[in-house]
Amino acid sequence: MPGSDDGCMDDIRFSRFIVLLTVGCMVPACGAAGPSASVLEVRAADSLPPPQPAAALAAPAAIAPPSPDGNPFAGATFAASPNYAANVERTAKAHPSEADRLRKVETYATALWVSSVGDVAKVAPALDAARREEQSAKAPVLTAFAVYDLPDRDCSAKASAGDLASTSGGERRYEREIIDKMAASFAAHRASRIVVFLEPDSLANLATNKGIAKCHDAERVYKSSLAYAIRTLAMPNVTLYLDAAHAGWLGWTKNREEFVRIVAEVLSAAGGADKIRGFVTNVSNYDTLGSGDLAALEPSDPAKGELDYVHLLDESLTAAGIGGKAFVIDTSRNGRSHLRTHAGSWCNVRSAGLGSRPTASPAPLVDAYFWVKPPGESDGASDAGQPGYDPNCGGPGAPDSAENAPGAGSWFDAYFVELAKNADPPL
To answer: What fold characterizes domain 77-421?
Structure first.
């Protein structure tokens, strides 16, 4: 059975014979493929090796639970990504006058993004590295992952279309090649403390953008795939946060309440609201914690910043029977305000700066400020001739976006230097 420490089924013991009944179980649960049909085998008990004394059996790995209040960030060191540090180091070497400041960023944690089927191969090595760090430090080390590869991903934009399409088996591939494989890695590292941020920009698009044909058509696969991910990844050592967009998107009551209605449907299909710890907001965005661009540019939005937003969202969730949830706010690029001419600008916003450093329990309802988006990775290409170009990232329709930006997810050297220079609090 899944979760068993000693095989697929317990032995059924009789006075003289042992009857082993093998029914064939899933490979991820048992660790090895069983026979495809039931087999009844009877062996004389005298022919079996004697049982091992309890002391000789290998002790199972202890699960690293969250803190007593359930916050997985509390009391833990946050695992830093070696790949991210390597990007920062290359930029530091290329900008010697800024090197000291840039190198201060290397040690801060960011989420490891699973944005394609190929990225799943990074999960187990990241957990192995965190486990070694944990054994050295003799303290919990938390590893965070952002899962971002729904079939028909990013249905309202062009910069970050994914590698899975619902019309060509994408839903099954998402389940089998991403979620199931991540679940197997998490189960193999059950002593590790793990956080998962699920699918930025997904359910928010269903709440506000179903007038776009691609979003309308993606509704069923988004809901079913997210329910599957939640159901499968909910483990004792894994804490799940579902993406909830940001104040400038769902701050308005109508948008927020439609989002909560969709969330309730997905959580019901996943097995209940208790499968997730809470929600992550502001992923890859620029909304400040307090009053900033939104207050000036969108005065009708009751959420003037992300802290306002999580309180309003908590009220809407509680009214819908989804109470007691916690929040994580992405502060990777929201250190500065009054940068945008349009509150909807989201792509490589000029003059942005690093925000609050990853911190546990920084405010009421908030489990952590965390750098979900790795600072320095581009949001999308600014040149119309580049693959992955989005009009929101360059050209006359994107006056707030930085120039010479590479494709989404690529390292944007000059932009990272500006983020570090403009950090608030300063580095």
So the answer is: TIM Barrel (3.20.20)
